[in-house]
TrEMBL record:
Matching InterPro entries: Cellulose_synth (IPR005150), Nucleotide-diphossugar_trans (IPR029044)
Name of protein: BnaA05g13550D protein
Originating gene: BnaA05g13550D
Topological relation to the membrane, as annotated: Multi-pass membrane protein
Protein role: Thought to be a Golgi-localized beta-glycan synthase that polymerize the backbones of noncellulosic polysaccharides (hemicelluloses) of plant cell wall.
Native source species: Brassica napus
Binding site for UDP-alpha-D-glucose: 112, 141
């Protein structure tokens, strides 16, 4: 029956809703390049195996880099580009689109300011979508009255904002972003626009005043008494009942539905962080609007392109190729980046190149935000199983609230085979992998006009903490029962397995990078050569790999729209992430496996204090806090500096043999020299700066002592 239906549509409306293209010439060129590098890597392996070196550790280091390079090739081997035809979608479906439920998650009213959260909510409420088909759910893991109050205010404002956006077709549809937009559209002058701007400013002021005073105005408490009365006087963020308030019920009024949910939290129950919030949202929404499609965004990721839902539907509603696609992922973009992206947050190449490569191999990872899912697939449907008819069953509020209680999930499959998975700091990636292992593919869309934009961490420590969580989570997946290597074998393609491995191997890759960099410096210091002589045949593959790989990486970065400085900054972050975040992520995972510690979810702050924000704008690296990760970075930085200085001194003093030193250790001079140059902002932060963002004195002193003792030990040994 089903098959015949399909054919019917094919015959009558043949055109696909999206197109998948490959750029053959470019791909072939890359493969040739890649083969040349691989050949040289083989030569290096041969050298490492046959020619003895004095230090054996460096051998493992270099063998690992070659292997990892092979794994990473999967990301560039087979890229695809997707193009959607929204006009065909409109022609075929008109306004007869499936219900769309948008889930926005927030967890802390201090580091995720309610005004930012409601801007995100308003932006998705104004998506270019039939309003009666659209519902926005805000999950508040902070259980905060302030957030509720802000949402209630936003619900009021939405009545003006949403029609305004549609009438004048404004972009972007986050009011804050729109009103601060430099290139104001002609609309702004109009009376309607001025009215909207005034209403927004008033609302923003009320919310910010309430936040500043920590007090909700009494008249608001009265106005939204039904919501506020759900807070017990002794409620805290970790201990409260379910709070559920439908602020706008669009089912009755032909408008967007807006719902506030704070699931029950009790100290004796694990709440599973964002994954737990998502599952509560899936269940609660199933009894209110039950959208067939679910869009998930973080609270800072506002919709920057109101067409994104239609783009995603072109894929999910496509009758042919789209049928096997479970979710459509958009890249994570940011609005608060500076020109040279000091902390490499943008992951430019990841978004422009690598995710397209993953897509060509079976689909991108689910990265937790900016992703459109099919509801029933999240709930466990396998590919090939019949889609169940949408059941429009609605229940009493009290019954719905029970779905978000702590006990509900006991002895159930939620968090395991149903919904978003528990127990992993990157719940998103493991959930996406599980979906793909059930036979589904996914698709990646990266339209010119960014679909969603959020807030990137604005200081080094936060960045490193975030990366630590990611590397830890990805490594846990590798070791888990859903390991891409064991479990996914035969369920997803080999290319995609390798693709997952690129990320899952982040944490373990820290060890060879650490060993490699430290040994290169120390051996330079001791005068032990690790690489072939500069004028020898063996040197050619080393030189070629080093130059070619880096030149390619730079060229790719520039193609993707980056700057030279930006690339250089990214190389620094490459090093820092590996020698701090990933190393800690690695040990965290091992400790967790041994049962010594439990993994946490440190939420990334979305605001910075004023002075720090200024330094961020000026691209001055922010240290400021005492952290073991900084101690490690500082010690390594000092170590490289001492080793390099000592080697240069030796070179100068023994000028007769100097030629010999350069000849035997040229490569080590270059590598250690580069390590010193790239660490410049670190030395500045440790030794030269006076502002609050400099490295704390204690860290500097400790790092200095540690590095000096290491050098002394080595010198005497
Ligand atoms: O207990 C929690 C913790 C976090 N969140 C929300 O989860 C989102 C992501 O948190 P954030 O601190 O911004 O983490 P990021 O590292 O920026 O997030 C990326 O990585 C996470 C996994 O590590 C994914 O969950 C996110 O979707 C993805 O954007 C935010 O909206 C939080 O409010 C909750 O709802 N409950
Ligand atoms: Mn975030």
């Amino acid at each position: 029956m089903r098959k015949e239906d399909d054919r019917f549509i094919q015959v009558h409306e043949g055109e696909p809703l999206f197109d998948t293209r490959r750029k053959t010439g470019r791909v072939i060129a890359y493969r040739v390049f890649s083969a040349s590098v691989f050949f040289c890597i083989c030569c290096i392996w041969l050298y490492r195996v046959t020619v003895p070196t004095e230090i054996d550790e460096n051998r493992t280091g270099l063998i690992w880099f070659g292997l990892y390079w092979v794994v990473v090739q999967s990301l560039r081997w087979n890229p695809v580009w997707r193009f959607t035809f929204t006009d065909r979608l409109s022609r075929r479906y008109g306004n007869d689109l499936p219900r769309l439920d948008v889930f926005v998650c927030t967890a802390d009213p201090v580091i995720e300011p309610p005004l930012m959260v409601v801007n995100t909510v308003l932006s998705v409420a104004a998506l270019d979508y039939p309003p009666e088909k659209l519902a926005v759910y805000l999950s508040d893991d902070g259980g905060s009255e302030l957030t509720f109050y802000a949402l209630a205010e936003a619900a009021e404002f939405a009545k003006t904002w949403v029609p305004f956006c549609k009438k004048f077709n404004v972009e972007p549809r986050s009011p804050a972003a729109y009103l601060s937009c430099k290139a104001k559209t002609s609309v702004l002058g109009s009376a309607a626009a001025e009215e909207v701007a005034r209403l927004y400013k008033e609302m923003a002021e009320r919310i910010e005043t309430a936040a500043r005073l920590g007090r909700i105005p009494d008249e608001a408490r009265l106005k939204y008494v039904e919501g506020f009365s759900q807070w017990d006087p002794d409620a805290t963020r970790r201990n409260h009942g379910t709070i559920l308030q439908i602020l706008i019920d669009g089912r009755k009024a032909n408008t967007v539905t807006l719902v506030y949910l704070s699931r029950e939290k009790r100290p004796e129950h694990h709440h599973h962080f964002k994954a737990g919030a998502m599952n509560a949202l899936v269940r609660v929404s199933s009894k209110i609007t039950c959208g067939r499609i679910i869009l998930n965004v973080d609270c800072d990721m506002y919709s920057n392109n109101s067409k994104s839902a239609r783009d995603a539907l072109c894929i999910l509603l496509d009758e042919k190729e789209g049928k096997e696609i479970a979710f459509v992922q958009f890249p994570q973009c940011f609005e608060n980046l500076t020109r040279n992206d000091l902390y490499g947050s943008m992951m430019r190449v990841g978004a422009d190149v690598e995710f397209k490569g993953l897509d060509g191999n079976g689909g991108p990872l689910y990265i937790g935000t900016g992703c459109f899912h099919r509801r029933d697939v999240i709930c466990g449907r396998k590919y090939g199983e019949e889609e169940e008819e949408e059941s429009e069953d609605t229940s009493e509020t009290e019954m719905i609230k029970a779905l978000a209680s702590c006990n509900y999930e006991e002895n159930s499959q939620w968090g395991k085979e149903m919904g978003v998975k528990y127990g992993c700091p990157v719940e998103d990636v493991i959930t996406g992998l599980a979906i793909q292992c059930r036979g589904w593919k996914s698709a990646y869309l990266n339209p010119k006009k960014k679909a969603f934009v959020g807030v990137a961490p604005t200081n080094l420590h936060q960045m490193l903490v975030q990366q630590r969580r990611w590397s830890e989570g990805d490594f846990q997946i590798l070791l888990s029962e859903y390991s891409p290597v064991w479990y996914a074998q035969g369920k997803i393609g080999f290319g995609l397995i390798l693709g997952y491995c690129c990320f899952c191997l982040w944490a373990p890759s820290s060890v060879p990078v650490l060993i490699y960099s430290v040994f290169t410096s120390l051996c330079l210091f001791k005068g032990i050569p690790l690489f072939p002589k500069v004028w020898s045949w063996w040197f050619i593959p080393f030189g070629y790999v080093t130059v070619a790989v880096n030149a390619y990486s730079l060229a790719e970065f520039l193609w993707c729209g980056g700057t030279l400085r930006g690339w250089w900054n990214e190389q620094r972050m490459w090093l820092y992430r590996r020698t701090s975040s990933f190393l800690f992520g690695f040990t965290d995972t091992i400790l967790k496996k041994l049962g010594v510690s439990e993994s946490a979810f440190v939420i990334t702050a979305k605001v910075a204090e004023e002075e720090a924000a200024e330094r961020y704008e000026k691209e001055v690296m922010e240290f400021g806090v005492e952290s073991p990760m900084f101690l490690l970075l500082g010690t390594l930085g000092m170590l490289h500096l001492f080793c390099f200085a000592a080697a240069v001194m030796r070179l100068v003093m023994t000028s007769r043999e100097a030629g010999g030193d350069v000849h035997t250790m040229g490569m080590q001079f270059v590598i250690t020299g580069l390590l010193v140059v790239i660490n410049w902002p670190l030395y500045e932060g440790m030794l030269l700066r006076k502002d609050k963002g400099k490295m704390p004195r204690t860290v500097t002193v400790k790092a200095f002592v540690l590095a000096l003792s290491a050098c002394t030990c080595i010198a005497l040994s």
